[in-house]
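Task: encode each sequence below as structure tokens.

Item 1
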Amino acid sequence: PPTSREVRARATDSASAPGVTAAPPESMPATASTAVDEWRLIGVAVGADGAVTAIVRGQGDVYLARAGDHLTADVVVSEVGEGGVRLQRADGSTIDLRLP
């Protein structure tokens, strides 16, 4: 396992990775959020152990992230579901990302 909470990866087809299957979109509860175009959810994968990992693009990188992972110094993944991700900024605002 990585020693850092921040995990960066090159964009790959996660559905073809061994032990990982792409998950269908599922609704996340609607809450107030800040619309930001700099972050985009490009996929969600569920491992054989049931762990949900989000594939997020932003700031010129692609991240494989789970709840609690820091994408940048001021952006942390607060929730990961099969249909979306919630990011929390250091100022307390949230960014909800959903699969298209």
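Item 2
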Amino acid sequence: MTNIRQAFFKMNLRQLLFATLMGSLAFAVRNAGLYVIISYPFRFDPRWVFSLLAACWVGPEGGLIAGTLAAIKFDKLVQADLAAIPAHFLVGLLAKLLIQRKINSLYACFLWPLVGVPLYWLTTLLFTPAMATITLFPVLAFIGLSSALLAFAVGLAVEKRASNLLSFLKV
């Protein structure tokens, strides 16, 4: 029987560097304010492309690293999207399962709207209850699905053009 810890939580230096790089890019995009407002305070962030690719190609530990870096915002106060961290972990976990079954790990991107939308709605309900109306759910679903589709498309393009990337990461 396979040791669960070794099967899911094994990371080499290249994967650590890749997850940190992608998380740092997501961090930079978020803190530079590169986004499109969908419905205040929710916006479409291209940062999710970087962090979701790290979770899909590295696994749950890459999802934790990239998701945490993507969640942090420095403004007047340090803010964090608390829903992003467990959602990225779960995306990475599903990606690892898909890799073990010889299925493209990019399909794990589509777990993002399924897990991320309810988590974002719940954190909005907990921290700003007046904003967490039921009409907010379709906006979050649109943002989550758009982010997943964009990350999936970019990931497929990168895999087609840079076939050495996954062998470099030893996924």
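Check on item 2: The chain has a mean pLDDT of 86. Residues 71 and 81 are 5 Å apart (CA to CA).
End of task.
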